[in-house]
Amino acid sequence: MISGDINEVVMKSIYILLLFLTGFTSASIAQFATFHSGDWVSFLGNSITMNGGFYNYVELYYLTRFPKEQVRFFNNGISGDVSGGMLRRMQADVLVNKPTWCVVMAGMNDVNRGLYAEKYNNDQDAKQRRQEALERYFRNMDSIVNQLIDAGVKVVLQTPTIYDQTASTATINLKGVNDALGQCAIYIKRLSEKYKLPVVDYWSAMNNTNAAVQTLSPSASIIERDRVHPAMYGYFLMATEFLKAQQAPSYVAMVSIDAKKSKIKHSAGGNAVLLRSSSKGVAFTWEEDALPFPLLSADFKPDSLFDFSKSLNNEILQVKSLKKEKYVVFIDSVEVGQYSNKALSEGINLAINNLTPQNKQAAKVLQLLQEYWKIERRLRQVKYVEYQLLPIGAKNDPTFFDVNLRHRTDKIMALLKDKPEDDRKYYRRNLDDYIINKPRYKELEKEAENIYKVIQQTNKPARHIYSIVPVK
């Protein structure tokens, strides 16, 4: 969620700080249109992309907000990758899928974080290597854009995320890494101007948010304890910035009824039919065109940190001219809440009510997507091993691929014997998973597609009957 200790009072204070101190967001984001049916969207990057996080939330938004659209998202992230590695796998891993869009992010590994260790602070050679790393990143990003444009792929650039060099935690702090990433972000904006491409500026938004978080709780962060990978709120902020850059619709749907006049004054994003109406209460049917964005977990409250619902998740039910003080809202004969006539007159946001049938339906979409993402993760682990670990074993060994998978992975681990213990455990885990998943790769792809087909059936909104009556 958020790493470090942070309570609800602090969260509310942070939200106020974001509004008044930073303006929270997205003034520097170049906007672009939402994706449409037939679009195949590749997300190209390192572990921050491979982990899913932000782009999974974008995918969830599309499947609930645009249930009739056929937009597919593909994970082309590889843990530990740099821009040069992305260039090398461009054809075999990205263009082979014939994407219509490619959303690109690199930088976190390109800056060569190890060169910012305290022992190198006065090392002129290290400082020169830092600069060379940046210049190599600049060249590679230009080449990535050129390759994609030449292939007829539309490009969205993303600035790198932040390295948290300000949190008061025990984790070793490589001070200067985030400044280097800031230089990467400046270059990405220049690249977007050069090629007239949209850019999503995570670096600025995450810095602003993290500064507000740490003003009130110095050890808290939207970044994990490793100072590198976004925590849940960090990933969700990224998704929100992405959708805002696309000018994604803020409304799921809305209906406004004048009970006294027995009239639907306004309806958008669906079809509402009035069944009966008086100043005492109303009944109507409402079939929306979309589903609300579901709650990701019981303790996840994005509105406590930033204004997600108001910006991107409005499902508004408004009933004016009711006489009684308090009313019960039923949907399909099930009570979903009690509201004052004032609240109903101003409009209530059903998207944040987990008791509604449409929210429960959206939660089912999320549940299915989580199953899909688990398989997708296993498929990307196979690619990770093939792009990052197998080349270690194959180097200078023409017989490497002649032996079975277990012997290959054992050889790789032997070659990595001098790596830190935590790294070795990570490599061993991925290699063991590779032995299981590589022979089942095609089968896993089919399993994922079958789940996705179910998702595309589950995300279609239904007609519901609403009844709003006075509390007895």
What is the strand and helix layout of this fold?
Blueprint: H1 8-22, E1 40-45, H2 47-50, H3 53-65, E2 72-77, H4 83-88, H5 90-94, E3 101-104, H6 124-150, E4 154-158, H7 177-195, E5 199-200, H8 202-216, H9 232-245, E6 251-258, E7 263-268, E8 270-278, E9 281-288, H10 308-312, E10 314-320, E11 326-331, E12 334-340, H11 341-346, E13 348-349, H12 357-394, H13 405-415, H14 421-437, H15 441-458, E14 463-470
Parallel strand pairs: 1-2, 1-3, 3-4, 4-5, 6-10
Antiparallel strand pairs: 6-7, 8-9, 9-14, 10-13, 11-12, 11-14
Helix pairs in contact: 1-8, 3-9, 3-12, 6-7, 12-13, 12-14, 12-15, 13-14
Describe this structure in a few short sentences.
The protein is of the alpha/beta class. It contains 15 helices and 14 strands.
Q: Report, as a whole number of angstroms, the end-to-end distance.
A: 41 Å
Radius of gyration: 25 Å
Count of helical segments? 15
What is the CATH architecture annotation of the largest domain?
Answer: 3-Layer(aba) Sandwich
Task: Tell me the total number of β-strands.
Answer: 14
Structural class computed from helices and strand pairing: alpha/beta
Q: What form results from the Cα inertia axes?
A: elongated
Strand order of the largest sheet: 2-1-3-4-5
Instruction: Please report which band the strand proportion falls in: under 5%, 5-15%, 15-25%, 25-35%, 35-45% or over 45%.
Output: 15-25%
Order of helices and strands: HEHHEHHEHEHEHHEEEEHEEEHEHHHHE
Q: Biggest β-sheet, characterized?
A: 5 strands, parallel
Low-confidence stretches: 19-28
Helix content: 40-55%
Question: CATH fold name of the largest domain, please?
Answer: Rossmann fold
CATH class of the largest domain: Alpha Beta
Number of domains: 2
Mean pLDDT: 93
CATH superfamily of the largest domain, please? Answer: SGNH hydrolase
